[in-house]
Design a protein that fits this description.
The protein has a single domain, classed as Rossmann fold (3-Layer(aba) Sandwich). The protein is about 35% helix and about 20% strand. A seven-stranded mixed beta sheet has the order 3-2-4-1-6-7-5.
Length: about 180
């Protein structure tokens, strides 16, 4: 089995001094949401990634840094790879990146990236699973939203559109409601 965790970056400021979208920092709410999600993940051992692909945008890198610190300061930095191709990636490009993890023998891959690509990817990969989570995810993959998708595959090469099962969907709003 392979477990994919799709994490959308946390809430950002609407602008940055440089004017560049890739440079937008997290807003105060984004920092809080990322910390809360990281604290929740720390208690979910079966969800902890052994490989993380992160967009090079400031908001994605900062989201991962906050989440990682809350999971554990002992999370080895070498499990994380910063990939410029995640910024603006389409679902087919993202699937190719997922399949590239086969060479690294990862069982639990997290991708920290952006909409619309992550949301479209999640919807495309899921063929079943948690019905309530699928309904919530169909509406939106919000900032700091996390979709956990399982694949009955021996390798990431077996990940395909429609072949995943949604194991969990969480967001800051859903965590507060729980």
């Amino acid at each position: 089995m392979r477990r994919l965790l799709l994490l959308r970056h946390a809430k950002t400021e609407s602008d940055t001094p440089s004017g560049g979208d890739r440079d937008r920092p997290l807003a105060a709410r984004g920092r809080k949401d990322a910390a809360e999600l990281g604290a929740w993940l720390a208690g979910q051992q079966s969800l902890l990634p052994d490989l993380v692909f992160i967009s090079t945008a400031v908001r994605a890198r900062t989201t991962w840094d906050i989440v990682r610190q809350r999971i554990s300061d002992d999370v080895p930095p070498e499990i994380a790879a910063h990939l410029p191709d995640l910024y603006g990636a389409q679902p087919t490009q993202l699937l190719a990146l997922i399949r590239s993890a086969a060479a690294q023998k990862s069982r639990r891959l997290m991708i920290v990236g952006h909409n619309p690509g992550l949301h479209e990817l999640a919807l495309g990969l899921i063929g079943g699973g948690d019905a309530a989570g699928r309904a919530a995810l169909a509406r939106n993959l919000p900032t700091s939203g996390l979709a956990v998708i399982d694949f009955a595959a021996e390798s990431w090469n077996g990940a395909a559109f429609g072949s995943g099962q949604l194991a969990r969907f969480v967001s800051p709003k859903l965590l507060k409601e729980a």
